[in-house]
Amino acid sequence: MDEEAIIGIAIYLATDKMNKTKKRKKRFWMKEWFKKRNTFTHHNLLNELMLSSPSDYKNYLRMDHLTFSNLLKMVTPMIEKQDTGMREPISSAQRLSCTLRYLRTGANFEELKFMTAIAPQTIGKIIIETCEAITTALKDNIKVSKS
Predict the structure, then answer these.
(1) Does the predicted model carry a pTM greater than 0.90?
(2) For 76-124, what is each residue's pLDDT tens digit?
(3) Record's superkingdom (predicted)?
(4) CA separation (Å) from 70 to 53, 63, 73, 132?
(5) CB 74 within 8 A of CB 138
């Protein structure tokens, strides 16, 4: 085979392969309604309950606002995330309230997604990190039975 034929075959194979490659579906960084977390989150409800109905606030999280604030101060250094400029980080208060709501209800991550406007994969990470932070912060107050 001469050199021109080899080059022609190579070009044909390269263009044929490019035509056969499947185009990937475009992925997006974050769903649009997650970007509006501050509008749709249950944290707005908590703020309203704190002002208008402290008993409902306590029923929602199983603790009053003062206890929540004290716990938040203890765990914030361990669960707070930095702003990367790509998107706004989930606040420590939202992380803690999401975790407490999970512990309170046992709701699955898909249900919590709609309450908190946080993706289920992120909720899974948040709950683990926050539970570890709570355990660390309250280690002197936690009593484990010996049996």
Answers:
(1) no
(2) 999 999 887 777 788 999 999 999 999 989 899 988 987 888 888 999 9
(3) Eukaryota
(4) 19, 11, 5, 17
(5) yes
